């Protein structure tokens, strides 16, 4: 398993796909999802030049950040419990999973304490599976209003997780729902981030408008759960 070769292969897939669908590949950010993977593998990618890594567990992200270079941009991509927010506001680069007002309150509180503005994505729920987090699509506007009322929070875009399926029709439908419900003020900002797509569906997500894809397995191989 060579993470650098895998990373390059994913980049190449993105590039070829962008040529086919007439999108500029430079618009697409590849986030290496390193959850459960050892720091040695992250370090290899870092040495190759990769700086953005995604984790879904607060404690794991903290432990890795403590031993890896300080210029890594850590993305928190998983569902976030309010009582864990305080552990990451000192160093997190982007929280992809802002999906409810109590969480936004807590991010604001901890951000003020850390004296750092925190960037977040509003996570919107489009999958029918009950386990998927996110705010209901028709409440995204309200959630944005709420987040914009906070001094220490910047809303950088939106995130979604589609159903775990290979059915392109289902994926397309869910991504269309996602993009349809992105608040106008986010769409109007050319810098906005649309975080969608994983190993199984990142090209489908890009076809639908994603500009940040979160890829773990295709880069690191199967996850090592302990
Ligand atoms: C694990 C995870 C990913 C990456 O999944 P792969 O299928 O391994 O690419 C992407 N997004 C979120 C929110 C995740 O938890």
Structure description:
- The protein has helices spanning 3-21, 39-48, 58-67, 101-114, 140-148, 168-180, 184-187, 202-208, 217-220; strands spanning 29-33, 52-55, 73-76, 94-98, 118-125, 153-161, 193-195, 212-215.
- α1 packs parallel to α8.
- It has an eight-stranded parallel β-sheet with strand order 7-6-5-4-3-2-1-8.
- It is an alpha/beta fold and 226 residues long.
- 40% of the residues lie in helices and 19% in strands.
- It is globular.
- The model has no long low-confidence stretch (mean pLDDT 96).
- Pyridoxal-5'-phosphate (PLP) binds next to β8.
Q: What topology does this entry show?
A:
Layout: H1 3-21, E1 29-33, H2 39-48, E2 52-55, H3 58-67, E3 73-76, E4 94-98, H4 101-114, E5 118-125, H5 140-148, E6 153-161, H6 168-180, H7 184-187, E7 193-195, H8 202-208, E8 212-215, H9 217-220
Parallel strand pairs: 1-2, 1-8, 2-3, 3-4, 4-5, 5-6, 6-7
Pyridoxal-5'-phosphate binds at residues 33, 35, 56, 77-78, 161, 198-200, 214-217.
């Amino acid at each position: 398993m060579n993470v650098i070769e895998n990373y390059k292969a994913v980049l190449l897939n993105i590039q070829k796909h962008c040529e086919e669908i007439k999108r500029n590949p430079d618009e697409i950010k590849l986030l290496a999802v390193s959850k459960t993977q050892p720091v040695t593998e992250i370090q290899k990618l870092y040495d190759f030049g990769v700086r953005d890594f995604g984790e879904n567990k607060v404690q794991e992200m903290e432990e890795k950040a403590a031993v890896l270079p300080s210029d890594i941009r850590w993305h928190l991509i998983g569902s976030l419990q309010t009582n864990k927010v305080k552990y990451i506001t000192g160093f997190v680069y982007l929280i992809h999973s802002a999906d409810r007002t109590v969480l936004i309150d807590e991010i604001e509180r901890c951000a003020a304490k850390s004296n750092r503005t925190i960037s977040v994505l509003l996570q919107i729920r489009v999958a029918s599976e009950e386990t998927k987090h996110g705010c209901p699509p028709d409440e995204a506007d309200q959630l944005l209003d709420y987040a914009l009322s906070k001094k220490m929070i910047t809303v950088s875009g939106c995130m979604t997780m589609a159903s775990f399926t290979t059915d392109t029709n289902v994926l397309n439908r869910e991504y269309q729902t996602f993009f349809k419900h992105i608040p106008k003020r986010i769409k109007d900002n050319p810098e906005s981030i649309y975080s969608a797509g994983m190993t199984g569906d990142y090209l489908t997500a890009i076809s639908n408008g994603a500009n940040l894809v979160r890829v773990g397995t295709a880069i690191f191989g199967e996850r090592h759960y302990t």
